[in-house]
Amino acid sequence: MDDAMNALVRSQPSEPAEIFDRWRAGRRASVAALREADPKQPVHWVAAPLKPPALATTRLAEHWAHAALDIAAPLGLDYPDTMRLRHVAWLGHRTLPYAFQVAGEPVADVFCDLTAPDGSSWRLGDPAAASSISGSASAFCRVGAQRLAPSASGLQISGPYGEKALSLLRNYAVT
């Protein structure tokens, strides 16, 4: 995928303003296509077919990870976490069963009680689950983006599958 994208970028050299206009047009087309798509019908994507709501959320997670964590942070630019991070946290939690399955582990329910950027609580999953992850939503999302080690996250885990869930957590499809 990286090689294909690099070849595409190199094949279309342009001035920054033209690239930005092309990006804006592509963004509008993507949003329109996602809005018009049947939300229950999976569409082809890089790693696996995804339903449009999951695809849209995956794209938001990728944008946040690359813009905030890969570009803004190293440049010292302010890119504060907002309540929109809920989508990234939801995606990380929602893909845990898939991550367990791909890792050859038994699928386990994991409850997440995360503290949002505004201090409120985001509760994902069944509170009666035998395993749980709790703490900062920002740290949870960074672990899922593979930008923060679980051991450095400050997240609290409990139950028989809490540690495994945190090690498998991803905000993107795993193969």
Give the strand order, joined by hyphens, for the main sheet: 2-1-3-4
Q: How far from one another are the termini?
A: 14 Å
Cα shape: globular
In terms of structural class, how would the helical and strand content be classed?
Answer: alpha+beta
Number of domains: 2
Largest sheet: 4 strands, mixed
SSE string, helices as H and strands as E: HHHHHEEEHEH
List low-pLDDT spans: none
Key features of this structure:
175 residues; alpha+beta; Nonspecific Lipid-transfer Protein, Chain A; 2 domains; four-stranded mixed β-sheet; globular
Tell me what the structure shows.
A 4-stranded mixed beta sheet has the order 2-1-3-4. It is globular, with a radius of gyration of 18 Å. A hairpin with a 5-residue loop joins β1 and β2. It has 2 domains: 1-36; 39-175, 2-Layer Sandwich (Nonspecific Lipid-transfer Protein, Chain A). It is α+β, with helices and mostly antiparallel strands and 175 residues long. It has 7 helices and 4 strands; from the N terminus they run αααααβββαβα. α3 crosses α4 and α4 packs across α6. The protein has helices spanning 2-11, 16-36, 52-75, 85-94, 96-102, 137-144, 162-168, and strands at residues 110-115, 121-124, 131-136, 156-158. Helix content is 50%, strand content 11%.
